[in-house]
Amino acid sequence: MTDGFQIVVCGSLVPDPLQTLEPLTTPQGPGLKNELMLPSVLDPWSAHALFEAANLAKQIAGSKVYLVSLGPKAKLQQLMMTVAQKVPFELVAIDGSASGFTDAHEAAAVLAEAVAAIPGLDKNRLLVFGGCASASRDAGVTMQLLCERLAIRDFFAGVDEIKVKPDSSFEVLERIEGGQYQVSVCKGAPAVLAWATGNLPEPPNNPQVGMVNMRGVMPALMKAKPSKVGTGGIAYEKTEVPAQKRATRIVKDVGADQIAAEIVEWIKQ
Amino acid sequence: MKILALFHTQDDGSLPKAALEVLTTAMAIKEQTGGTLAVGILGQGAANAAETVAGCGAESFLTVGSEAVAQARYATDTAAATALIRDSGAELVLAPGTARFARCLPGAAHRTGAQIDTHIVSVKAEGGQVQAQRWFYRQRILGTFSRAARPWIMLADAGVNMPWHGASGAASPKEVAVGFSDADLRTSVTGVRSPAADAQTIKPDAALLFVAGAGWTKKQKDGQFHIAEAGVLIQDFLIKAKSSLGSSKSLVDLQSEGQETLNFMTHMNQVGQTGSTPRHAKGLSACCHGEEPHAVGWRFINERRAINLDPNCGWAQGKADVVYVGDAFEIMAKVNALLS
Ligand SMILES: Cc1cc2nc3c(=O)[nH]c(=O)nc-3n(C[C@H](O)[C@H](O)[C@H](O)COP(=O)(O)OP(=O)(O)OC[C@H]3O[C@@H](n4cnc5c(N)ncnc54)[C@H](O)[C@@H]3O)c2cc1C
C-alpha cells in the first residue's frame, strides 16, 4: 500500500439548479442576468467527487484531500460556509469567472497551474478528481485537458466507483452507453478521474469539520490568485432560452379505464 | 476546408449508429464548404469498418486498427486519435459523442493543439464560416458560436441527425502508424459490467421513456407503502411497452440513503440536471412532480405525458402535453392489462 494518496478535487460553483436562468450579453461575452446575486451550490458532479475523495482518504492512511476551486472569490467564500462542513479538505482558491460560457481550455490551464503549485505535491501519490461535466458549461473536457497538462496518462470518465487494491493498483467503473459499466484496472497513481454520481449520499453537515476546514479556508481565499479566464477562442453569436411552454391538456375526473386506454393508444401510435 | 469524420468501431467491429449520423453531417459540411472529406477510424476491425462506409465519397480513409486500440482505454485511444488527426491535416474534425470519444478526444485536442466542443446539436457552414450550436447550463440555454482557430474538434450528440446509408466497397484505407509507449498501457480494460438481460432498463433506442418519481415510494391513500407493488407494475410496463426507464433524483437518492425503494433503479436511471438528458420520441412520467430540474431531463423528449394525483404538479405548468390526474397505481395496472 502507498503512503496514502494526495487527492486533488477540482470543483467550483454553479447557480442553484432551482433558479431560472436568463442569458444576457456583457462586455466579456455572454453571462447570466443577476449572475453575482444568484445563489450557488458546489457543482453537483464535483461534489460527488469530493465526497468520494474524502471517503477514499478515510480508508487509506496518510491520504489528504485538496479542493481546487476557480470562481469569484466572494462567492467561493459563501459556498465554503456549507461545503466546508461536509468533509475535511484543504482549499486552493483561484479568483476568476465560474461562468458556463468561459472556454474549458482556459479553465484547464489555470487549474493545471494551481494543481502543480500545491506544495509537496508528489505525482506518484496523486489522484486528481473532478466532475464528469459541470452543470454550467457541461462540456466534459476540462479534466482531460488538465490531465494532459499535468502529463498524466490515465484518465477515467463518468466514474461511479474506485476500489484500491493492496498493491496500490485500482479498479475503476466508468459509465458507458446503455446503463453499462466499463471495468478497468490501473497500475496506480497518478491518474485523473472525472466522477459521475458515485455511490455515497451527501454527508450531513458537521460543524467540527467545518471549524477545522475554515482555519485553512480564509487564508486560502486571501491568497487566491486572480485569473483572467474568459471565453477564449469562442465567438458567441447568440445565447437564448428557446420558448418551450406547452399548452398542457389536463385530464381529470375521468376513470382510470379511460385514461389507461388513451395512454395505450398514444403509446401504440 | 479539410474535414475529418473521426469514428471508432464497436466490439463487433461495426461502426456505432452515432458515427453514421456524424457522417451525414460531415458530408453536408463538405458540400457547404466545397471542402474535402477524410474518414478516420480507430479500434478493432477499423479497416473492415472503412469498407462499410466506402460509398460516402470521402477522398481518403485512415485507420488505426492495432491491438492497442482493441480496448477503449484513454491513453491508447488518445494517441491513436492524435495520429489520425495529424495525418489527415484536418481543420475540422467531426466525431460522435460516444462514451469512448467523450473520454479520449479532449486529450487528442490538447496534443494536436486543437480546440474542442462537445454536445454539438447542429453544425452549419455559411460563406466559409462554420457555426455550431450546443446547450449550456445543462440544457437550459442554447448557444450559437464559432471558433477561428483550427483544428476544431466537435463531438455531436447522438440522435440529432439521420444516420448515413450507402454502399460499402473498397475503401483502400491507409493504416496510420502510432508509437504507443509502455506508459500508455498502465490501464487494462478488463470487461464490461452489464445489468442482467431482464434488468436492462436503460434503452437509448427505445421509442418511449418512462420516468418514475418518488411518489411510487410514498404512503398511498390507504395509508400504507406499496413499494413492492410499484416495482412489479413498473417492470411489467417496461417489458410490455419496450420502454426505457428514467427516474427522478429523489427516487434514486432514497436508495443511497438506505431506505426501502425500487431495487432495480440506480443513479444511472436518473434524468435531469444531474442525470442524463436522453432522446426519445415519447415520454411518460408517473408519480413525479416534474419541476424545473426535471424538465431539463426532458429537454429532448418530443411528446410528454404525465400521471399525477396533483392537478397542480409541475408538469401542468406548460411542461407536459397531457397531465392525467389520477392514481398511477390504478392507471398503470390497467395500462399493463391492455398491453398484454
Ligand atoms: C443540485 C440539485 C440537482 C438536482 N438534480 C436533479 C436531477 O438531475 N433530476 C431530478 O429529477 N431532480 C433533481 N433535483 C431535485 C428536484 O429539485 C426535485 O426535488 C425532484 O426532481 C423531485 O422528485 P420527484 O418528483 O420524484 O418527487 P416529489 O417532488 O416527492 O414528487 C412526488 C410526486 O408523486 C405524486 N404521487 C404520489 N403518489 C402518487 C400516485 N399514487 N399517483 C400519481 N402521483 C402520485 C405526488 O403528487 C408528487 O407530485 C436536483 C436538486 C438539486 C438541489
Protein described:
The complex is a heterodimer of chains A (269) and B (340). Chain A is built from 6 helices and 15 strands. Chain A has a single domain, classed as 3-Layer(aba) Sandwich (Rossmann fold), CATH 3.40.50.620. In chain A, the strands form 3 sheets. A 9-stranded mixed beta sheet of chain A has the order 11-10-9-12-8-1-6-7-13, with helices on both faces. Chain A has a two-stranded antiparallel sheet with strand order 2-5. In chain A, strands 3-4 form a two-stranded antiparallel sheet. In chain A, 29% of the residues lie in helices and 30% in strands. Chain A is of the alpha/beta class and 269 residues long. With 340 residues, chain B is an alpha/beta fold. Chain B folds into 2 domains: 2-175, HUPs (Rossmann fold, 3-Layer(aba) Sandwich), CATH 3.40.50.620; 208-339, Rossmann fold, CATH 3.40.50. Chain B is built from 8 helices and 15 strands. In chain B, strand 2, helix 2 (46-52) and strand 3 (60-64) form a beta-alpha-beta unit. In chain B, the strands form 2 sheets. Chain B has a 9-stranded mixed beta sheet, with helices on both faces. The chains are: A alpha/beta (269), B alpha/beta (340). The interface between A and B is large, with 86 and 98 residues. The complex binds flavin-adenine dinucleotide (FAD). Flavin-adenine dinucleotide sits between chains B (213-215, 218, 220, 248-251, 270, 272-275, 287-289, 291, 293-294, 297, 307-310, 313, 327-329) and A (17-18, 41, 44).
